[in-house]
Design goal:
Elements lengths: L1 H38 L7 H4 L4 E11 L5 E10 L13 E7 L11 E7 L2 H9 L2 E2 L6 E3 L11 H5 L2 E7 L2 E4 L6 E4 L1 H8 L5 H6 L10 H10 L9
Parallel strand pairs: 6-7
Antiparallel strand pairs: 1-2, 1-4, 2-3, 3-9, 4-7, 5-9, 7-8
Length: about 230
């Protein structure tokens, strides 16, 4: 009997990495679905805005909870254009974590999808290496909506991060000021099967993109194949 229990325990332990990897693969796949669906909304992210983004962070189904004044918690992915200057094609995703204050557009506790566009190399580099407070360490603003909207507004020119939300079919710019965004390197290890940092994934191409990221990367490469920002 003891041998039976020991064997069952060993099987359970051996299955843990695979279970963890499946969970992270699901997050990457969900991020791809969110981006694909948002890009098909008539009044979505303006082309002139996404063409100037260095990286995109997608956080599917961020959940709001009530502790004191409330808060939110989400896990998702970040994908960047290749190279140190973010001029290449969209690359392998790094897992990210969002934590922080209550977000106003979450309707009645509804889980909300968030998309963040990183508009400067500095914001992208900082987020890849440490925890960043949105609106504090990196300037942020609600992103403009509508394909005919211009990126050349005072708000978008000043902001390092533009943020969007989708809940109950509504897509809009939303402020995430006060929340924090950080690399989730534990999740990266589960996804890629080895220890690998967010910065190595983006800058050193330390790992190939997993199959679960195919929709995410293909959608972004189709919608915005070139970085048209004036950043060096």
């Amino acid at each position: 009997m003891n041998k039976i229990w020991l064997g069952a325990a060993l099987l359970a332990v051996c299955a843990l990495p695979a279970f963890g990897q499946d969970k992270e693969q699901d997050r990457v796949e969900n991020a791809g679905k969110v981006v694909q669906e948002i890009m098909n909304i008539p009044d979505d992210i303006p082309q002139s805005v996404i063409d100037k983004a260095d990286c995109v962070v997608v956080l599917p189904s961020v959940v709001k909870f009530a502790i004191g004044i409330g808060g939110s918690y989400g896990r998702g992915v970040m994908t960047c254009r290749g190279g140190r200057t973010f001029q290449g094609r969209w690359g392998a995703p790094s897992m990210m974590a969002l934590e922080g204050g209550s977000f106003g557009l979450q309707l009645g506790g509804q889980a909300t999808d968030f998309v963040l566009l990183l508009m400067s190399p500095r914001s992208a580099q900082n987020i890849l290496t440490s925890k960043v407070k949105i609106g504090g360490d990196a300037s942020a603003a609600a992103g403009p909506v509508g394909r005919n909207a211009s990126a050349e507004t005072d708000v978008t020119l000043r902001a390092e991060i533009l943020s969007y939300s989708r809940a109950r079919g509504l897509f809009a710019g939303v402020s995430l000021s006060g929340s924090t965004l950080r690399p989730d390197n534990d999740a990266n290890e589960k996804l890629y099967g080895k220890k690998v940092s967010a910065s190595d994934i983006v800058f050193k191409k330390a790992v190939p993109a997993p199959p679960s990221a195919s929709v995410l990367i293909a959608t972004l490469n189709k919608r915005s194949p070139k970085n048209l920002s004036k950043n060096p």
